[in-house]
Amino acid sequence: MIITVDGPAAAGKGTLSQKLADKYNLAYFDTGMIYRAVGLMMLQNSFDLNDVASAENMAAQLSFSKMLELSKDKDFRSAVGGKAASVVSSYSGVRARLLDMQRNFAKNPLFADGKPASGVIYDGRDTGTVVCPHADVKFFITASPEVRAQRRYDEFLQRGGDMSFQEVLKDVIARDERDANRKDAPMIPAEDAILLDTSAMSIDEVFQKAVAFIEEKLK
């Protein structure tokens, strides 16, 4: 079984995806990690994030082992890393170079320990429209910019970040604009995606709704 969970930043994709992966014993692939890895490689090599050619070159060099190594860096999940990921993911050449890596995982899904899995949960943008358009179940998770900014702000505070809420909100809105205005693959729900607005829902409520849709599909 292949399930995709698409939507904007801080909508709740990751938490839902992990809970679904646990419930249905599926491999979990956070596709946002590959863009964070490329963005971080750009920063580590002192490249301008607007340098498209260098971003494409970094993407071409990325491997799963390199991605896992980079994920241990303090900036990988920080606001800095998130902004870099958002910028490089807007480049069609970067996405093209990383597409095969994402698609191949569906053919041979693996758990974190290397054991084969019977299916995969894809967590990330374009997973239901570009990466796995033939997925068995597709979700598009969203929430208002203010709610998503508050969630991201709370995460930063827990990690000791010093960004203000207004800075986080500005970044969320900017990322939304970049994603919406991509010419080749704007962030939109797949035609057959199940839409869930989590603005006024707890994660347990979102999870139960998602499970209900999946169980109906399995019938």
Secondary-structure topology with pairs:
Blueprint: E1 2-6, H1 13-24, E2 27-30, H2 32-44, H3 52-61, H4 64-70, H5 79-88, H6 92-107, E3 120-123, H7 127-131, E4 137-142, H8 145-158, H9 165-180, E5 194-197, H10 203-218
Keywords:
alpha/beta, Rossmann fold, 10 helices, 54% helix
Q: Can you tell me about this structure?
A:
With 219 residues, the chain is an alpha/beta fold. It has a single domain, classed as Rossmann fold (3-Layer(aba) Sandwich), CATH 3.40.50. The protein is built from ten helices and five strands, in the order E-H-E-H-H-H-H-H-E-H-E-H-H-E-H. The protein has helices spanning 13-24, 32-44, 52-61, 64-70, 79-88, 92-107, 127-131, 145-158, 165-180, 203-218, and strands at residues 2-6, 27-30, 120-123, 137-142, 194-197. The chain has a five-stranded parallel β-sheet, sandwiched between helices.
